[in-house]
Task: inverse folding
């Protein structure tokens, strides 16, 4: 896909137009580590592998599960404990679309033909 967009490096600002539940969904789809800045001032870095919204999108009913980068431990956090989510890890899926693969294959084939 031309102009692929990666969330790597994005530090979303929550507000009326961007709510935490949407950022959680994006973090779940992201194929890299995120930094969770907690309300108590600490930061947890890890891979967000699961989330649940309960019966509504209220922050106290939302929860995420993260595999911590530093320990490998799984951790479950209520979203009301999270002040911000930053996309700080390398986007492991960047450039991995079918179109990107086809483009690399075509370039490699052309290079191979040029050397024959």
Result:
């Amino acid at each position: 896909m031309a102009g692929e967009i990666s969330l790597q490096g994005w530090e979303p600002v929550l507000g009326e137009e961007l709510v935490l539940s949407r950022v959680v969904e994006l973090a779940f789809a992201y194929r890299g580590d995120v930094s969770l800045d907690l309300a108590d001032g600490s930061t947890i870095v890890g891979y967000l592998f699961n989330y649940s919204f309960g019966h509504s999108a209220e922050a106290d009913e939302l929860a995420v599960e993260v595999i911590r980068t530093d320990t490998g431990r799984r951790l479950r956090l209520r979203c009301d404990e999270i002040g911000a989510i930053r996309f700080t890890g390398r986007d492991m899926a960047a450039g991995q679309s079918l179109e990107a693969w086809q483009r690399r294959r075509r370039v490699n084939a052309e290079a191979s033909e040029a050397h024959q």
